[in-house]
Design a protein that fits this description.
By secondary structure, this protein is of the alpha+beta class. It has two domains: 55 residues; 69 residues, no CATH class. It has five helices and six strands. The chain has a two-stranded antiparallel ribbon with strand order 1-2. It has a two-stranded antiparallel sheet with strand order 3-4. The chain is elongated, with a radius of gyration of 17 Å.
């Protein structure tokens, strides 16, 4: 029996394609979070379903004639992650890992801005993208005081060689 090959997502080659990928990921995320149809979230984020199909084919499926979002996807993303030397960019290959990193970065942000370290407890002795999460409040505050933490941007630059 013939088996359909799973298509990989489009890898951005320049800044414009990075922006498109961010819109696509935002539309997919909004559709998952708010349980909205993909065509509506695509319109909200300023993109089209055909663009989502091109950039994130593993995130959607056709069901009863309409596209809908799967529970998780395998789209490679470049994310900023706190390392012992500051912020490092890591390629993450699933939406579950990306969500885990986002929760960790929110916990780090809460520690730095509000002094609340309770969110870091769930990340003790945990790894993602081959790296352990830094949960030492002393180390994180040292990195913040040295100006090595950029907590505003989750996604890094995805282009190669530029």
């Amino acid at each position: 029996m013939y088996r359909k090959r799973k298509r990989r997502g489009h890898i951005p080659r320049n800044a414009r394609e990075e922006q498109i990928l961010e819109k696509v990921l935002a539309a997919v995320s909004l559709s998952r979070r708010e349980n909205l149809p993909l065509r509506i979230t695509a319109k909200i984020e300023g993109t089209r379903v055909s663009t989502i199909d091109r950039y994130a084919p593993s995130a959607i499926e056709k069901w009863k004639g309409e596209f809908r979002v799967k529970r998780f996807d395998l789209i490679p993303r470049v994310l900023n992650l706190v390392d012992s030397k500051g912020m490092q960019q890591r390629v993450v290959r699933s939406s579950r890992s990306a969500s885990k990193i986002a929760r960790y970065m929110n916990a780090v942000r809460a520690l730095i801005h509000k002094g609340d370290a309770s969110g870091l407890k769930e990340f003790k002795r945990k790894k993602v993208a081959g790296r352990k999460f830094i949960t030492s409040t002393r180390k994180l505050k040292q990195l913040a005081d040295a100006g090595l933490l950029e907590l505003q941007r989750l996604y890094g630059r995805a282009t190669r060689g530029r």
